[in-house]
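Aim 2 progress update. The chain analyzed this quarter is reproduced below.
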Amino acid sequence: MRRVYLDHAATTPVRPEVFEAMVPYLTERFGNPSSIHSFGREARMELDKARERVAALIGAEPQEIVFTGGGSEADNHAIRGAALAAFGKKNHIITSAVEHHAVLDTALSLRSLGFEVTVVPVDQYGMVNPDDVRAAITPNTFLITIMHSNNEVGTLQPIKEIAAIAREAGVLMHTDAVQSVGHVPVDVRDLGVDMLSMAAHKLYGPKGVGALYIRKGIRIAPLITGGAQERKRRAGTENTAGIVGMGVAAELAMTELHQEAAREAALRDRLVNGLMTHIPHVKLNGHPTMRLPNNANVSFLYVEGEALLLNLDMAGIAASSGSACTSGSLEPSHVLLAMGIPHEVAHGSVRMTLGRGTTVEDVDYVVSVLPGIVQKLRMMSPIYDRAGECAIKDLCANPEGCHRAGAGSGVQSGPYSCK
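Predicted structure tokens:
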């Protein structure tokens, strides 16, 4: 049986080059980077080299990079660190309804300390309107945190425009770029952000290591105290092997980024078009063009997402029902609900994310297998319309104009479209 991995947004395999670079720092080169002897100096030298590589990937200076235990810690450091620095002076945070829970839950948890949080809405594509952010700013706003790209539907946000609004208002700007870095061009100078989060295991590096970019001159409180590591911004002996791996992964990503993004986008389009052509009652979620090159989030009406995933797994295909952090929940995706997608449609959504190892043969296999799975599950559904009538009226702005169209007639609706 063919095995196809389409869950690269959850995690990526460690590249052989990354693994080979890490091994010495798990064995004979075990020194503590803070030690002054040769063992320590050897580890420190590689730590500095990794910092330079990660900084180069996002257009930053090495001293602006703080290594963390992952993307979630980087998000927490940015938000809680900014909040502690502003405590007693300003108390208002702005975020969006489609953030990763590492951002959304962290921001909302600060309400218990007296902070106010405004959650701005998104449109049908999951995109934030910069004007909504501008309107939400008050004299007490100290932080805006909006993700660079969405981890579930892949929509790219207008971060450069939002960061300009934040700068004009004298407000710190943080972006969670965990899904973006290494997959699309990210330049902190061009974006104008003050802080940016990233994670190694999303770009073929090891799990358990990430980084937070903090623009030179920005002062936020440390999240972890107790040592002088990372210029006193993150205490604790550094994960040398993991950081070395992240550095190599960053350098490889920078070299291959444009070529690989174009290749993945072509495969993604082949996948989406194939599904739209062969399966009725399908909806692509997220922005049709302003999205990550490897992300395809699709709703299959009259099908339960978890049942789809189980059947795909039995066919050797690994996908996800949304964020890896929430896939065990029975609740529909908060991202899809924020986009105005009905509960019953959100429950039938599957996220398929491609990667370096994904081939044309993999995509064609999925397109050949998935229609049969969907049809089998729909035939067991008491609400599936077997008569072939339009089944997406609840998604149409003009239900009376909903009609059967030719195969592949629309990316958003597939063979069924609204006119």
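Confidence is low (pLDDT under 50) at residues 387-393, 395-419. The chain has 13 helices and 14 strands. These observations will guide the mutagenesis experiments scheduled for the next reporting period.
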